[in-house]
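tokens incoming
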């Protein structure tokens, strides 16, 4: 891995789940979509063949997901899920006070939680994420926002993500 800015933290569980998804898409997924495209082609005129166009569009989305997964897995930093409560680490669910509001989010990659959660996710490489890393509950940290202003954030709680 040469570009650490593109690296994403993943637990071993998340890495394995994504690797399984990639294998399924490359093998069964590609085979299935090829059969659907071929069946739609046999129906005749491709200009007015909705099934053909839908299958080609689905193929494009699937290939994009394959590329995304390959890049993510190639650049992943795989580590154990955090176990220490009270310390902000990749894979932690963090509650902060910022601008007078309380916000809770996962620090890491959306791929850690999959599609089953509506929890917000912030990258540990973002300005906020980088400022929070290693901080403890009760501490206040600051970071420079993209607009150049300094933002103070109080860590209310940090706990390991539980799926």
């Amino acid at each position: 891995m040469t570009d650490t800015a593109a690296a994403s933290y993943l637990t071993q569980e998340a890495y394995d789940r994504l690797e399984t998804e990639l294998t399924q898409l490359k093998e069964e997924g590609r085979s299935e979509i090829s059969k659907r495209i071929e069946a739609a082609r046999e129906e005749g005129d491709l200009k007015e063949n909705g099934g053909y166009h839908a299958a080609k569009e689905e193929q494009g989305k699937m290939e994009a997901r394959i590329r995304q997964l390959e890049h993510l897995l190639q650049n992943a930093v795989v580590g154990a899920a955090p176990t220490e409560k009270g310390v902000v680490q990749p894979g932690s669910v963090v509650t902060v006070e910022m601008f007078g509001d309380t916000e809770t989010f996962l620090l890491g990659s959306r791929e850690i939680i999959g599609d089953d959660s509506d929890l917000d996710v912030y990258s540990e490489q973002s300005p906020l994420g980088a400022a929070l890393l290693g901080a403890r509950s009760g501490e206040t940290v600051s970071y420079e926002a993209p607009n150049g202003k300094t933002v103070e954030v109080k860590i209310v709680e940090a706990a390991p993500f539980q799926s």
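note: The radius of gyration is 21 Å.
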